[in-house]
Amino acid sequence: MTHPFLELPPLSAARFASVEDRVARLLDTRRDVVIMQGEALLPLEGAIRGTAGPGTTALNVITGPYGQTFGDWLRDCGATVIDLSVPFHTAVTADQVREAFAEHPEIDFVSLVHAEAATGNTNPVAEIGEVVREHGALFYLDAVASVGAEPVLPDAWGVDLCVIGAQKAMGGPAGVSAVSVSERAWARMAANPRAPRRSYLSLLDWKERWVDGGRKVLLHAPAQLEMLALEACLERIESVGLDTVMSRHRSAALATRAGALALGGGLEPYVYEAADAAPVATTLRVPSGVVASELVARALESDPTLPLAAGGGALAKEMIRVNHYGADATAQAVRASLTALGEALDGNDAGVDVEGARRAVESAWR
User: Fold this and answer.
1) CA angle at residue 280 from 49 to 34, to 5 degrees?
2) From 3.40.640.10, 3.20.20.60, 1.20.1640.10, 3.60.15.10, which CATH number describes the 7-240 domain?
3) Above 90 in pLDDT, residue 185?
4) pTM of the shown model
5) CATH topology (fold) of 242-365
């Protein structure tokens, strides 16, 4: 039995390069873009291991669980790590980063997550980038959740290593990812004796065997279906316009926040300030006496496809995530999610107003 997915001709180097060019246009970057053949954790780890080592002093900003992971990788590389942790219900500020440089002028690497889908906050990368540039440090950014939901501009912001994935706001595949790399970052890798070589984690392999060779011969057989899915995803974004896609995510975030406030029942935004809230996902704090994971389970009984999840780890007790990204960045998905949460809360005699939430969603979306 034949299947069209199993009879595709091999993906050519030229087509692979054309997809990289499309990613570069999406990011408005003139820097090298390398598409990595795996989920975004691959370039996220590869970029740190390529540029960090025993001589590195890294400022690692923690606004959620991924920042904690980056600190672990940096320490494993032998770097001296200075953690800048802020409460997960807020965002880091450029002034806090500036103060860290004043206390530790030896910092030469800064790692930051743009939008933390896990905690629902987003960080002011443009302002932070100005501070990092003032001190000449290398700037590493996880933009996996933010790309497609809000501007991601590595060149304009001075980001040396900008990692993206397509599986969230872009509405694309999870098994392929990309990183834009500045000349400074390439130089740091080339000078790092511990940078991975002849390894799946190696960005330098891609630089020397792919980029420097004029992108004529691929390192290995690419993940063809994922590459074609990424190409289709980029084509779709280009056809409707990136601004339209980002506007849809902003509307979803505003509508979710407004609807949750109108719903009542003791639910409240987990991220205190709307300006700090990510457009890719809205996190909600459950009322006292309610376990978030149990509330989500009840809400999903009516429709298991709703984009609802409890927070991870210890946050599973107190946080709910409404993941309004990609195909779920719609008024319908937001309305259905809040309706299900309201119905799950209704037995608590907490003054739930499902109809008020629906009206608030429609009003905010307009």
Assistant:
1) 35
2) 3.40.640.10
3) yes
4) 0.95
5) Aspartate Aminotransferase, domain 1 (3.90.1150)
